[in-house]
Design brief:
Length: 353
């Protein structure tokens, strides 16, 4: 708990003056005002987060957090929980979607075992931070204890701070956990007060019967557990997930360390939402990678106040959207730092009528 409290105390707003100065620098580039659209937003935001008008693209790391969920026993997923460890092996072999897209974008993928119900036995390349062997069934009681939720949050914080110390300049979030769209929908339902049916979608592509079981499981979990939206830790512990907590911690740690955090889709945004409810200022450090087809994602993004970068009808997770969005954020930084000004290029600037 001490690390969590210390991290929350370290988070401060980005430098608004630096934001303005970065925009002024962009306005003097050889282009009409605002002609590069959101790329300019990305450049100025990274400058303000990094504390310099000349941020340099550096090492990009996507942390893919893995954990299992007891609620799977309610029949809410198209896949059995055994797929979670199988996909962890796939990540480590470099064969998953996030591996392919991270290689494409020049990012590194780091896989973190937060709570997989499997003994990996010191598997090389796997970051072992297991808090528990999965969560309990949220439809029948709390998913985890408050202490487990804090421990999982602090794992994410530690990973972000360690990444900063080794020179990483951009963090990305990803996840793997069969059934994890169920706690994600439960989290946004708890905070928003909206009906579960309006926030819950098909996840891995479940049919109508499974979708109905999923909605009923979430409704039961909210009724039994009564998560308190005024207490984000209570929501996380009662209806969340260990990998969601790890993501929330990574967002908090990234903000405390002055790093931009590129948040993937629906499940990752559930983690970012927990982080932003714990400390609203972290929203200034978050880049929403994409808009998921999961119907609750829009509500999450609106609550955080984040405009997604991409809309490619993605619904895989893992950090795939983050890998793609990182390349565009980096492009915005390069516009800020490499594009010539009117004076440098000997080009006459715009005149105002």
């Amino acid at each position: 708990m001490k690390l969590l409290e210390a991290t929350l105390a370290r988070i401060s707003p980005v430098d608004s003056d630096l934001l303005s100065r970065a925009q002024a620098k962009l306005d003097n580039k050889t282009k009409p005002l605002g002609a590069l659209g959101r790329l300019e937003e990305f450049g100025r935001r990274v400058a303000a987060i990094s504390g310099t008008l000349s941020p340099r693209p550096g090492k990009k790391v996507i942390f893919t957090f893995a954990g299992d969920h007891g609620v799977v026993e309610e029949g809410v997923s198209a896949f059995p929980k055994e797929v979670t460890p199988q996909m962890v092996f796939n990540f480590l072999k470099g064969g998953a979607g996030v591996n392919v897209l991270a290689r494409h974008g020049g990012a590194e993928v780091r896989v973190v075992d937060m709570g997989v119900d499997f003994d990996f036995g010191g598997l090389p390349g796997l970051i072992d931070r297991k808090v528990a062997r999965g969560t309990a069934n949220l439809a029948k009681g709390p998913a985890m204890t408050r202490e487990e939720a804090v421990r999982a949050l602090e794992v994410g914080i530690e990973l972000a701070l360690e990444a900063k110390d080794e020179g990483v300049t951009m963090l990305g979030t990803g996840e793997m956990g069969i059934g994890n769209t169920t706690p994600s929908s439960a989290i946004i339902a708890a905070f928003s007060g909206m009906g579960v049916r309006d926030l819950t979608h098909r996840g891995t592509g479940i049919g109508d019967a499974a979708l109905e079981r999923k909605i009923q499981a979430i409704e039961a979990g909210l009724e039994i557990n009564r998560p308190d939206p005024a207490d984000p830790l209570d929501v996380l512990a009662k209806v969340g997930g260990l990998e969601i907590a790890g993501i929330a911690g990574l967002v908090l740690g990234g903000a405390a360390a002055g790093l931009p955090v590129v948040v993937d889709g629906f499940i990752s945004t559930a983690g970012a939402l927990i982080a932003s409810e714990l400390h609203p200022t972290v929203r200034e450090y978050i880049f929403a990678a994409h808009r998921s087809v999961e119907i609750g994602h829009r509500v999450m993004l609106e609550r955080i106040g984040a405009e997604p970068i991409l809309d490619l009808q993605l619904r895989l997770g893992e950090g795939t959207g983050a890998a793609l969005a990182m390349t565009l954020i980096e492009a915005g930084v390069k516009v800020l730092t490499e594009m010539a000004s009117f004076d440098e290029a000997g080009v006459i600037g715009e005149t105002v009528a």
